[in-house]
Amino acid sequence: MAVCSLCLIVFSAIVGLIGLVIYKLFSKKPIPQLDSTQYWGPGEQPKEIDTSIRSFKIEVSDEEIADLKWRLDHLRPLQPPLEGIAQEYGINSNLVKEIVEFWRTKYNWKEREEVFNQYPQFKTNIQGLDIHYLHVKPANPGQKKVVPLLLVHGWPGSIREFYYVIPTFTKVSEERGFVFEVIAPSIPGYGFSQAASKPGLGAAQIAVVMNNLMQRIGHKKFYCQGGDFGAIILQQLCVLYPENVLGYHTNMAYVATPWSYIKYALGTFNKSWVVKPEHTNRVYPLWQKFEHRILETGYLHLQATKPDTLGVGLTDSPAGLAAYILEKFTTGTNITWQKRVDGGLLEKYTYIELLDNVMIYWWTRTATTSVRLYAESFSKKQRAMKLLMYPLRVPTAIARYKYDFYFADGILDEVFPNRLQVSDLDGGHFAAFEIPDLFAADVISAVEKFEKYNSIKEKTE
User: Fold this and answer.
1) Domain annotation covers residue 339
2) How confident is the prediction for the chain on average, in pLDDT?
3) Structurally, how many domains does the chain consist of?
4) Active-site residue, 74 included
5) 37, 51, 76, 134: which sits with the fewest CB atoms below 10 Å from its CB?
6) What does the pLDDT read at residue 223?
7) 273 confidence band (pLDDT: 50, 70, 90)
8) From 324, 374, 390, 401, the catalytic residue
9) 20 pLDDT exceeds 60?
């Protein structure tokens, strides 16, 4: 009898513990309210901060250009790749030598500086940080409705990714009743935006900065688009400020709820519960997909734990920086290019375009501060907020590119219940850079749906 009582107590304790774990996993707390005035600049917050909007141009000194040339001219001999190996061990050192030689002899920064400065650029201080952004308005909108579009890049990208889509977005078309006014900021700690001097500026806090930036410019309501970390930032902005977002387009829909993992597991018994038959191989077998994810995300773990150590080498060696970044453009654009000695880079890009992106990191010395975003965004404090688990109230559109991260239709309901468009397109992770026409067309199609949705919503309220 005593043994039975003890077993009952133990069983009850186990059931209670399991219940508590399930409750903590699935219960949603009220959305946290982040401090929209939190100061991230150096030292003590001054009594007054210059909130003016200042014109900006990219200008690199002759001394910095000479320093880069010297470093490229004095590249130490690289270790030859293993026999029969292309990019499977990371970027092929023979490819690195080819890129560095092009950089040394054919890449002209002074010409590229003019390309970078073709669009109006500005800086303004948000929460103690000078935030850099492109701001391109349509030249002659006429009677067309001008709508603001916030574009946010990720890592290892930059504002350079958007240079080919801006003309399409800001050009008046007879086929649609609106034209975009584009705002494309550099994430804090990336490019020409100032880095935080204090720990804790993760994706959630940057969402606050981005919202403050749009308010500063004068747009209380706006559309937004993001991929990679831009998607992580804007997804949280949509949770924190749904009243300000007219619609959200993403090319990296992110779902990581407890139910999503359970659904994926249950889908092994009946895959149609989770994924379209034609997309089954993008989700299953689960172990194979998990193994691939582990293989391709070693950088994430390093950047989320020891960003400053990594940043030393990337800041000191231009060849090292280029190798680290361009390896991601190989596998991120098309994973099968990992088997190619040339990395497939010239299939979709030119070395000039790729080096433009690398140069932003080099001139601004932001290798360290850019990868810190991983450490700040994957911290316990950030994860505890669970902002990425809240369903978005705003209308959304999702572009799933063939060689990019994929989230199945049966999973999207967890976070994107109000999706008006889901597109399955050819291309990879850096879509705006790789296939700008296809990318722009999908964003425009989404906003057309958002405009109709918002018009109907206004009439019924």
Assistant:
1) yes
2) 93
3) 1
4) no
5) 76
6) 98
7) confident
8) 374
9) no
Amino acid 460: pLDDT: 81
Radius of gyration of the chain (CA): 24
Query: Which residue in the list 228, 356, 404, 442 is annotated as catalytic?
Result: 228
Helix pair 62-73, 318-333: axis angle to 10 deg: 80
Determine the average pLDDT of the residues in 8-22: 38
Q: Categorize the per-residue pLDDT at 8 as very low, low, confident or very high, splitting at 50, 70 and 90.
A: very low
pLDDT digits (tens, 9 = 90+) for 190-210: 999 999 999 999 999 999 999
Sheet with 178-185, edge to edge strand ranges: 53-56, 121-126, 129-136, 178-185, 145-152, 222-226, 245-250, 396-401, 419-425
Cα–Cα distance, 208 to 211 (Å, whole number): 5
Residue 374: active-site member: yes
- In a domain? residue 397: yes
Looking up residue 124, the CATH number of its domain turns out to be 3.40.50.1820
Is there a domain that residue 45 lies in? no
Q: Is 41 among the domain residues?
A: no
Catalytic residue among 132, 153, 249, 429: 429
For residue 292, what are the CA distances in angstroms to 18, 45, 246, 286? 31, 45, 36, 10
130 has catalytic annotation = no
* 23: confidence class by pLDDT, cuts 50, 70, 90: very low
Q: Return the closest-CA partner of residue 235 out of 430, 444, 397.
A: 397
**HEC readout, the chain:** CHHHHHHHHHHHHHHHHHHHHHHHHHCCCCCCCCCCCCCCCCCCCCCCCCCCEEEECCCCCHHHHHHHHHHHHCCCCCCCCCCCCCCECECCHHHHHHHHHHHHHCCCHHHHHHHHCCCCEEEEEECCEEEEEEEECCCCCCCCEEEEEEEECCCCCCHHHHCCCHHHHHCCCCCCCEEEEEEEECCCCCCCCCCCCCCCCCHHHHHHHHHHHHHHHCCCCEEEEECCHHHHHHHHHHHHCHHHEEEEEECCCCCCCHHHHHHHHHCCCCHHHCCCHHHHHHCCCHHHHHHHHHHHCHHHHHHHHCHHHHHHHHHHCHHHHHHHHHHHHHHHHCHHHHHCCCCCHHHHCCHHHHHHHHHHHHHHCCHHHHHHHHHHHCCHHHHHHCHHHCCCCCCEEEEEECCCCCCCHHHHCCCCCCEEEEEEECCCCCHHHHCHHHHHHHHHHHHHHHHHHHHHHHHHC
Return the closest-CA partner of residue 260 out of 244, 283, 239: 283
Q: What is the pLDDT of residues 133-186, one digit of tens each?
A: 999 999 999 999 999 999 999 999 999 999 999 999 999 998 899 999 999 999
Q: What is the pTM of this model?
A: 0.93
